[in-house]
Amino acid sequence: MSEHRIVLCPGSYDPVTYGHVDIIQRASGLFDEVVVGVVIGSTRKKYMFDPDARINFVREAVAHLDNVRVEGFNMLVTEFARQVGACTMMKGLRAISDFDYEFQMAQINKGLAPEIETVYLPASAKYSFLSSSGVREIAVWGGSVDDWVPANVVEAFRHMVGTYHEED
Ligand code: ADP
């Protein structure tokens, strides 16, 4: 079978962490092509970083992987998966706490697009407690996030926290 298999790794990436990069890198070894889909807007969340910043952070973090491209999307994730020709959506699972939500999403998405499978990779041990929200919380209070996010994100946080202080 010479089919070109494309996988979609969707998320908000607010901001990208090494936990995300780990999943994307593992996906790139399993599929011919990876599309990282960055949610532009959501009814569910407010974002710390604007879409262009979130997309650029991911692009720089995966620049070393030549079968990976990063795109923003503003539609149902299943529609976006169809649009890019993905046969699979791949996500990371950290703990039991991720499972409930992810299981619901997988069922909903299967109903919307039965031809697309959702596949989960277990988070690598060293990133299993790492989340974008945790990183945001640490960074806003001036803690170091150097071990968890790429240097461009560290720099953006530094700038943002500096701005908060200037506004005080
Ligand atoms: P978060 O849940 O941190 O806001 P996203 O919505 O950007 O992250 O998630 C995109 C995908 O990356 C999801 O499938 C999520 O489970 C996964 N993910 C997030 N952090 C990690 C991590 N540390 N290890 C493995 N997968 C992760």
Descriptive notes:
The chain has helices at 18-30, 51-61, 77-84, 96-112, 132-140, 151-167; strands at 6-11, 33-39, 68-73, 88-93, 117-122. Helix 1 links the parallel strand 1 (6-11) and strand 2. The longest helix is centred in the middle third of the chain and has 17 residues, at 96-112. It has 6 helices and 5 strands. The site of adenosine-5'-diphosphate (ADP) has 16 residues, from helix 1 and strand 4.
Q: What kind of sheet is the major sheet?
A: 5 strands, parallel
Query: Can you give the mean pLDDT?
Result: 93
Distance between the termini: 61 Å
Q: Ions, cofactors, ligands: which are bound?
A: adenosine-5'-diphosphate
State the helical fraction: 40-55%
| Dominant shape | globular
**What is the multimeric organization of the chains shown?**
single chain
Low-pLDDT runs of 5+ residues are none
Strand order of the largest sheet: 3-2-1-4-5
Q: What's the gyration radius in Å? A: 16 Å
Task: Return the string of H and E elements.
Answer: EHEHEHEHEHH
Number of helices: 6
Q: Tell me how many strands there are.
A: 5
- Beta-strand percentage range: 15-25%
Structural class call reads alpha/beta
